[in-house]
Amino acid sequence: QLQLVESGGGLVQPGGSLRLSCSASGFNLDDYAVGWFRQAPGKNREEVSCNGVHPNGENTGYTNYARPVEGRFTFSRDNAKNLAYLQMNNLQPEDTAVYYCAILWRALACPYTSVDSWGKGTVVTVSS
Asked: Three-class SS string for 72-118?
């Protein structure tokens, strides 16, 4: 069973930072592309970042970021611990959302419709 659990969300003031974690169990995370998505109240779920994996299982070594977060958010993963992270700096009120991690089997991109498994999300609120 593919299970993902996010943590690290919370309330932060504008300009602050949070690091989200995604803990994977039941599979080897290094076989999967990892995407972070977010859904703000009243809006559609949107991709925040995607770190891909080649069909041969090799990581692409590249993470694609949505333009609103580029330069502020950084993805990383620790395959040995089956963990993925999203470091979020200089958070702004428009970053307020539920953040989800998702996995896709050996995928180069993270299209919403192709996700193999979703976590249940962690809430990030940016407010003064």
From this structure: CEEEEEEHHHCEEEEEECCCCHHHCEEEEEEEEECCCCCCHHHCCEE
